[in-house]
Amino acid sequence: MSNKNKNRIIIFDTTLRDGEQSPGCSMNLEEKLKMARLLDEMGVDIIEAGFPVASPGDYEAVNEIAKIVKNAVVCGLSRAKKADIEASGQAIKPAKRKRIHTFISTSPLHMKHKLQMPPEEVLNAVAESVTFARGFTDDVEWSAEDASRTEDDFLCRAVEIAIKSGATTVNIPDTVGYSVPEEYGAKIAMLFERVPNIDKAVVSTHCHNDLGLAVANSLAGVKAGARQVECTINGIGERAGNAALEEIVMALRTRHDLMPYSTGIETTKITKISRTLSTITGFNVQPNKAIVGANAFAHESGIHQDGMLKHANTYEIMTPESVGLTESKLVLGKHSGRHAFKTKLAELGFELGDNALQEAFARFKNLADKKKEIFEDDLVALVEDEVVRENERIKFVSLQVRAGTTGPQTADLVLSIDGQEQEAHVEGNGPVDAIFKAIREIVPHDKAGLQLYQVHAITGGSDAQAEVTVRLEENGRTVNGQGADADTLVASARAYIHALNKLQTKRSGFNPQTAKEATAP
Fold first, then answer.
1. Within this chain, do residues 229 and 91 fall inside the same structural domain, yes or no?
2. Domain with 19 in it
3. Per-residue model confidence as pLDDT tens digits over 431-478
4. pTM of the entire predicted model
5. How many other C-beta atoms can be found within 10 angstroms of the C-beta atom of residue 285?
C-alpha cells in the first residue's frame, strides 16, 4: 500500500488478530464480521483479520471478512512458512484489496531459543517467505519479531533483504513492550539512515504496552519517519495490550502543532466501536481510560467544574462530540409500539432480523414495566445483549430465585438446548452460586472454572440495568461472557450462558500449538 502523502499516517488495525489473542477476547464469526464492518466504516486503512492457518475457524473468518469489506485492505498473518502464506493467500483472495503479513524473529534471544536457527538461515527465510508471498499479492508486509531487542547491524540486513525481496511495508515491533520512546524512535531513525532501499517501503510501528508506553513509542516512531501504526480498539491484546487506536488518532489530531500528521479515521465513530468491542468481548473499559473511559470527559473537582462552566477549554483539550460521545437521551416508554422501537434502533445503528427484533422488543417492553426512565444506553445494552445471543445453542428461558438471610438460597432455571427445554432446581451458597450450579447441572462442564464475576450499572439510579461479565477458563482457553438485564441475577445467568456458548465454540477447530506460535509480532 503506497503512501504518497508523506504526512498521512496509515492506520493498521489488528483488533481481530492480536487483540483477539488477549485471554478471553475470542470472537465468533458473526462478531468478527460486525467489528470488521465498523472498522471499515470508521476509515481504518488495513484490517488484520486473523491468522488463517491457526484453525478452520480463523481461516473462515478471514475469508468472510475479505468478502464484505468495502474500502480497507484485508490482511492475513503468516509465519515464514509456505503453508501459512498459502493459507493467508487463499483466505484473502475475495478481498478488493489484500495484504499478506509475514514475520520471523530477528533478536539473538529469539533466534537461539525460539527458532533455533543461525542468523544466515533466518535471512534466507526472510527472502524466501517474502518472495513466496508476492506470488499471491503485490502488497506484502514483513515484520522483524522482537525488533527492539535486535542488533542494529542484523536488523538493517534483514530489512534490506525483505524490501529487496518485495516487501512494501516493513514493521519494527516492540514485541515484548521493552522499549522507551527515545530508544524506539532512535531505532526507526537508524533504519532510515542505514538501509539503502528504505525509501521503497513504508515503515510501520507495532508496540506492546507492558510498560505503559505503547502509544508513546508509536508516536516516537512516527516522528522518526514511520508512516504506519499498528494498533487495536481499546488497546486490547496480549498481556498488557497494544497501542490503542483511539489514543493514537486523537493524539495526532489534538497535538497537530507538534505532530503535523493526519489519518483517515472518522473520529466520531470511536465511542460506538469501543462500546461494541467491550460488549462482544465482555472486557469493560476502565473508567479512567483515555478517550473512551467513562471518566474521560467527567469533571468532579470543584475548581475544574468552575473552569468548565466559564470556558470548556480550560480543562477539556478535545470535545466529547469529536469522539462520538453524546448525552444518553430518554427514549420511548412502555406505550411505544414495535414500529417506533424499530425506528429508534435504526437511528442508533441497529438493523435486526425479524426474530431478533421480536425478542428485543419483548425484552424492551418488560424493561419498560420495571424501569421508570429508559435511556439510549439502556436500549443499546439490551439490543446488543440480544444480538450476541441470536445464534447460540444454549439459550436462557426463565429463572426464579430464592435469596435472603433465611436459607436455603435456590435457583429454578430453564434453558433451551438446541431448541429443547431443560430445567434444574438447585441450592447454593447464595443466589449467584445457585444459578451457576443450575447451569452446570443442565450443561455439565466440570473442567471449566469461573475466573471472574463482575457487575456494573449501565446508567444511574437504583433501577438501572445491570451488566455482568463472567470469565471461564478450560484447559488454557479463556472466554468472557456478558449479560444485561434490569434484574442482576438474570443478567448473571445470561452472562454465564454467553461465556459457556463461546467456550463450546472454541473447543472445536482450535489448535493450541499453532495459536501459541502466532503470538507475534
1. yes
2. 10-289
3. 999 999 999 999 999 889 999 999 988 887 788 888 899 999 998 888
4. 0.84
5. 19
